[in-house]
Design brief:
By secondary structure, the chain is of the alpha/beta class. It is 31% helix and 26% strand. It has a nine-stranded mixed beta sheet, with helices on both faces. The protein starts with a helix and ends with a helix.
Length: 509
């Protein structure tokens, strides 16, 4: 099994069609590609990689912003039997250096605007092999992607790989400690995308808008899913709410996936007199808990149906997904995918009854092989044959999963476990609140106290006592925040997750 066969099967099944439209956020670039064109370019680059000495089992690091070059490169790496190492380009020099040292790539692919940071990171990691740069700009000491594909044939025989060979090494948790390289096999990724397609199928009439980074698990999922369904992808360099709303109307987008922060920004930008979102059939939200009120507002204002899903890099990535044929339970992240078993464990790794909170654990063919060069962390995460996700949730009587918090984000006040997401759900109902994050801060009496960090809506003037009083009317006193801070924005990862660790640092120093 080699994942690269999906792109080949796509051509056999659907023939040649317009599969990718790329426009940068400022609309200064517009490119169209058919599935055959991308396949042939990736063949050319696969031939180039072989000539550079990249072989089966090697790793190739891809450090690129969203562009068609990411998809071309990913396909080529898989075709030669090598392992994709997608690196989020917004990481710091030190983080990239660590990844390069740990992954030990045989080649790096990057862009002109990132070259100086990548070269500095590579030098720090004692990397001495080839750096390939995409684009027309010639950089001394590097290889030109365009020249390489121009020098090579567009025919290539896909290298055979075993289903247990590595397809991707993707680093995670860079915001919470030492990065860990999640080892995903061809079988992990293939089984996950085929399971997802069973419960949430798309088709050739689907036009997807991608604004999340391709060098993230979502990007890999979108790429493989479009091969299976023959759907069209509109790709943006990054998320911009106005550009997103314009693209939905321009391209008659039918499917959009994002994280909660993106939906908040879309709603804050949306103007019914200007923006047309009538083409949307399905919205998908994942990556973080989302207030139920926000789900209702999205459907009311933007139209379509909004579905929730849950996943993590270590699960390749999807674990559960709401399905069209089942009644939508707001707040649920759906049923586990076929072939995936989910349970809720207590702190002693014992299963708890339905409706009881605990840690979400997962079994299935999608579960990672482990963490690269980290046997201790692998053994801990996969202990007793279960992937311990670090997420807190529960399952209802129908077996649907609900995610409430990250285990490390729970607030323990005087021995009581307090869920930040429950408090965030309440504060979000305040008409003057745009965004909110709740954290625990040290307290000499109770160990931890509840603190709310609030982003007011533009033009709104809020007070600490107003927010606390709003909470006191709706939840138990011991759960209410004891202090409130107001900020212009919350720190977020590239995919829009609020970085609570950064907030805790900021408000505990």
């Amino acid at each position: 099994m080699n994942l690269a066969i999906l792109a080949k099967q796509n051509i056999h099944k659907f023939g040649e069609y317009l599969s990718l439209i790329f426009e940068d956020t400022n609309a200064s670039i517009y490119e169209e590609y058919t599935n055959v064109q991308i396949y042939q370019i990736s063949n050319r680059f696969a031939n180039a990689l072989v000539k550079l000495g990249v072989k089966k089992g090697d790793c190739v690091s891809v450090i690129l912003p969203n562009s068609p070059d990411v998809i071309k490169t990913f396909q080529a790496i898989l075709k030669v039997g090598a392992t994709i190492n997608p690196v989020i380009f917004a990481l710091s020099k030190g983080e990239i250096s660590y990844i390069l040292q740990d992954a030990a790539p045989a080649c790096i692919v990057t862009s002109p605007e990132l070259y100086e940071k990548v070269k500095s990171s590579a030098d720090e990691a004692n990397y001495t092999k080839d750096i390939v740069v995409v684009g027309d700009k010639q950089i001394p000491g590097t290889l030109s992607f365009e020249e390489l594909i121009g020098e090579n044939l567009d025919q290539f025989d896909i290298v055979d790989t075993d289903e247990h060979d590595l397809a991707i090494v993707m680093y995670t948790s860079v915001t919470t400690g030492v990065p860990k390289g999640v080892m995903l096999t061809h079988k992990n990724v293939y089984s996950n995308i085929t399971m997802s397609s069973q419960v949430f199928p798309l088709d050739q009439s689907t036009t997807q808008l991608c604004v999340l980074p391709l060098n993230h698990t979502y990007g890999v999922t979108l790429m493989n899913g479009s091969y299976l369904f023959g759907s069209k992808v509109v790709l943006h360099t990054w998320f911009n709410p106005e550009a997103t709303l314009q693209a939905i109307a321009k391209h008659r987008v039918t499917y959009f996936a994002g994280v909660p922060t993106m939906y908040i920004m879309l709603l804050n930008t949306y103007n019914a007199q200007v923006h047309d979102t009538s083409s949307i059939k399905d919205f998908l939200v994942a990556a973080a808990p989302i207030p139920v009120d926000l789900l209702n507002i999205i459907e009311e204002k933007l139209g379509g149906k909004i579905y929730q899903g849950y996943g993590l890099t270590e699960a390749a990535p999807t674990v559960s997904l709401q399905q069209r044929e089942y009644p939508l339970k707001k707040g649920s992240v759906g049923l586990p995918l076929p072939g995936i078993t989910v349970k809720i464990f207590d702190d002693n790794d014992q299963e708890v009854p339905r409706g009881t909170w605990g840690e979400v654990v997962v079994q299935g063919e999608n579960v990672m092989k482990g963490y690269l060069k980290k046997p201790k962390e692998t053994a801990e995460a996969l202990r007793n044959g279960w992937l311990h996700t670090g997420d807190i949730g529960y399952m209802d009587e129908d077996g649907e999963l609900y995610i409430t918090d990250r285990k490390k984000d729970l607030i323990i006040r005087g021995g009581e476990n307090i869920s930040p997401s429950e408090i965030e759900e309440v504060i979000f109902k305040h008409p003057g609140v745009l965004e909110v994050s709740v954290i625990g801060v040290p307290d000499p009496k109770y160990g931890e106290e509840v603190k709310a960090v609030v982003v007011p809506k533009p033009g709104q003037s809020l007070t600490e006592q107003e927010i606390i009083g709003f909470c006191l009317e709706r939840i138990a006193r011991f759960r209410c925040p004891r202090s409130v801070a107001f900020v212009e924005s919350l720190p977020k990862s590239l995919v829009g997750k609020v970085l609570k660790r950064e907030l805790r640092k900021q408000f505990t120093q």
